[in-house]
């Protein structure tokens, strides 16, 4: 559980929407005192109804709030190792083909992730680069690099890649992707990246 990560996310969303805590309290029906506690990470346990109201006010999916609150350390600290908070990627959801989904041999499909910019800097001119190179049976990307829409701090974005399954069945096959900046360098080297893992059936 991570009230600190939730507080970071709330501040970024409020800033991105140019919304004050007074306005957020008015829109959500949640007291300013509760908002201030959330923003100071002073709430160890938050009601599901409260997180749902906050998500609605900040125009984000309730699952985003729940993932960050209960798994925040896991999804955002990877980008903060070394003390840098300039570029931080927060995983929100597997929109399509969650882990261990089944696909047919040779099938072409679209994998979509939803992520959040939890850092202090915008992502400008970035690409998502396939870094899976090992193994005989593997998911083949239709394109090894796809553009990432420019994303301001606090904004969410969906990233989509097209993949083709191998021509032989296998219990698990993975495609691994990382963010590359406009200079062609790994944008968040310490971050594990995004991956798609599926089962390939006849």
From TrEMBL:
GO terms for molecular function: DNA binding. InterPro entries: Cro/C1-type_HTH, Ig-like_fold, Lambda_DNA-bd_dom_sf, Nbr1_FW. Pfam families: HTH_26, N_BRCA1_IG. SMART domains: HTH_XRE. Residues 9-65 form the HTH cro/C1-type domain. Signal peptide: none annotated. It comes from the Bacteria. This is NBR1-Ig-like domain-containing protein. It comes from Thiothrix subterranea. The lineage of its organism: Bacteria, Pseudomonadati, Pseudomonadota, Gammaproteobacteria, Thiotrichales.
């Amino acid at each position: 559980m991570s009230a600190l990560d939730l507080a970071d996310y709330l501040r970024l969303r409020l800033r991105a929407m140019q919304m004050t805590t007074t306005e957020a309290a008015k829109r959500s029906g949640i007291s300013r005192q509760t908002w201030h506690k959330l923003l100071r990470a002073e709430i160890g346990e938050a009601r599901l109804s409260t997180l749902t109201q906050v998500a609605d006010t900040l125009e984000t999916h309730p699952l985003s709030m729940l993932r960050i609150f209960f798994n925040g350390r896991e999804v955002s600290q990877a980008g903060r190792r070394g003390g840098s908070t300039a570029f931080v990627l927060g995983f929100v959801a597997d929109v399509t083909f969650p882990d261990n989904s089944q696909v047919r041999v040779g099938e072409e499909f679209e994998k979509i992730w939803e992520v959040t910019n939890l850092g202090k800097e915008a992502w400008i001119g970035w690409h998502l680069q396939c870094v899976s190179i090992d193994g005989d049976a593997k998911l083949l990307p239709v394109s090894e690099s796809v553009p990432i829409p420019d994303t301001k701090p606090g904004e969410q974005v969906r990233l989509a890649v097209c993949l083709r399954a191998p021509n032989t069945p296998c219990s698990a096959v993975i495609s691994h992707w990382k963010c590359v900046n406009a200079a062609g360098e790994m944008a968040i080297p310490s971050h594990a990246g995004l991956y798609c893992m599926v089962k390939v059936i006849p």
